[in-house]
Amino acid sequence: MLLACYAALTTFSRGVYAALPVGVLVFLVLRIRQDPRFAAARGWRAAIGAAAFLLAGSGIAWAIFQHGGYRGLLAMLMAFAALVVSLPAMRSLPARLLALALVSGLIASAVVAVVGTVLPKGPYVCHAVLFAMWASLAYVRKGSTEPGVAFAATATAFALVASAVNVSLHWGGTPGAVLPALAGIAVLLAAVWASRSAVATALTGWREQLWLVAAAAMLGAGVSVLVGGAYLGERFATTREDLDGRMKHWSASLDVLAWPADWVFGKGMGRYPASYFYHVPDTELPGSYAWKQEGGNGFLSLSGPRYSMSWGYLFRFAQRVPPERGNYSLLFDLRAATDIEVHAEICEKHLLYNENCAVASRLVKAAGPGWHRAQIELDGQKLSGGAWYAPRLAFFSLAVASSGRNAEFDNLRLVGPDGTDVFANGAFDEGTARWFFTSDRHHLPWHIKNLFINVLFEQGAAGLAVFGALLIAFFWRVWLGSAKAHPLAPSLAGAVAGFVVVGLFDSLLDVPRVAWQFYMLLCIGLLVVPGGGRSLARSEGLESTVTKVALRAGRPRNGDRADQSVDATPYRGGTKKTELLWEMLWTPPSRRGWGEGEGALAVPDGAKVVVLRRTTEGRRGST
After folding, report:
1. Other C-beta atoms within 10 Å of 480: how many?
2. How far apart are CA 502 and CA 445, in angstroms?
3. Is-contact 364 287, C-beta < 8 A?
4. pTM (2 decimals)?
């Protein structure tokens, strides 16, 4: 989940940022509705609490990041993790001891802050030492019931919050210190409140604790990306301008559908780039390439864009190469009717955006109709390949830097620092294998940039109707239909909803792998077998038939027995006992606990269950 969040944030895509909250919201709504505990008011209070966590967490992360940067945010995340893990320990302490732990933690953090002033990078070192102390106490408490250990772990967790504020002040200085101070106070108050509420009982298992900490980490990462980068600010500042450009592009794309048959059945799959090439104004052509043959010899024909060019607008033909520091020599055969400026580069990049580069260009004079040998030298002293633990990929790119002109290339050789040719298929005898074209800035000639208009263009109104029917059937089935109770329904609905949101601004189905994944999710949602609740229970090693269950208001009685089972019917009793039974049936053994408040019993069809309950007068009866 953290890796997916990182990947989404680093796209710097406004469509992806809009899709994330929509997908998460759809997932949470369906997941809450599936959980019988949320049928009662307590469940919806928990949902409201989750929304409050998102809002308050975002505000706290913003306050910390504004003053303490990434260091302060990381320090507060460590403190938050300590508080979450320490909630059961806090709950075990009486109110008087909890207040004493809070005061003790604040005093300890003040002492540690004073010590940190005499150490190099003292606040960071002291925070790390405090976290190590807390981790040791938390590990000791895992196998101990001593209240003193719980008290020490709680006090250290409180001290970590104050220490995180100190880290922020060390980084950002004392001016403006009110923001991190208020954030720290808010975290401490929230921890004290949570320790005395049902939140503490809900966070007894390590999975729940891990999910909450991961959610906080994703919130922090999101806030840091949205607030901390000038590039993203520029992206959002141009949103209106970009949207106007997209709408003009969509209108121009639909103008290509000139015949009634085009509107009904479309132009065909993958036909958009060719249609764009032949129908847009001549000055907007982005450049092109073609593989040709003469007498069994293959070669590359490459054309430059028909508009004024800068670095990002070059039409590049590229191949991945190993980045090595040193000098490179590019040798090639060229045939052109006019003078051609040839651009060559080796850049450290994944596909589009470069870091360190070796760049050179040469104006090659036209010298008759035949092939002529040419050479370009590239200085690759800046290339490093990155560290061993984070290697950087590199691309060699070739481009025609003369606007609207064409040249033919053959027998390319890139001689590296060790004297060997690093190209594969440099003579193009295997077609364009191992080569790929890119345009860093101008993408519209290859994409309509809208999922639904793309389907209309390629498959016509008939295909769009089928596509819409598939989406409607999918959402109906996982939201209201026979698959709504299946464990996969929330995840499927959230994923497809997010995909559709991104598709409002991008044509995602023209990438075969992405299209396959999308249609696979649709098929799973349309074909998944209902009755997933029973499968979920079996997958967690739980039984849907319970013949011996004994409950009382707070804990199970080991001595109570039931002699026979009875058929269960759906029941909404609103009693504490029914919720306790639901916890017994559907919570994995490692997380089994006894909650408080109202609840509702929901069991799969055909399940057998008996409940023994003790009334307030001390009598037992079965329900």
Report:
1. 9
2. 19
3. no
4. 0.66
